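[audit] Reproducing an earlier prediction to check determinism. Same input, same settings, fresh worker. If the tokens differ from the archived copy the diff job will pick it up downstream; this log only records the rerun itself.
[audit] input (146 residues):
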Amino acid sequence: MIARTGRGTELGEVVGPCRDSQKAADSMVSVVRATTEEDELLIRRLDRHKREAVEACRAALAEAGSVACLLDVDQIFDGGTLVMHFLGTVDEVATTVTRSVAEKYESIVRSRHFAKLLKDGCGPDCGTGEGGGCGGGCSGCAVKCR
């Protein structure tokens, strides 16, 4: 599913029902819609670039002599953000290396037009079934209505 969180538009997975309706109402997460075939293609592309970014970051950290250990990277679905998780302290070298790798990654997978289409589609609430955005037959946006 596609969700909006405090970090942006993200790919999520529903693992069970929310038993406390008040917690769900107060949540900073809102489900936008189920993923589409177009989303699945985009996810595979983003995953490929994410793997390349992780490998480049690990190699650059080793080459720079940093002791920082990159554990994992969260990729925000809009392609504009990588959140890197480290084991232990992150030294200045690691900060510089990860910033450089993230900037390179983000420039590869994101353009302003691409990010806007992922966020808004062809208009507010596009693809959510709430009547906003497109009239149901658009083919020019990444959030094609169903």
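[audit] rerun output stored. Observation attached for the diff report: The longest helix spans residues 37-64.
[audit] end
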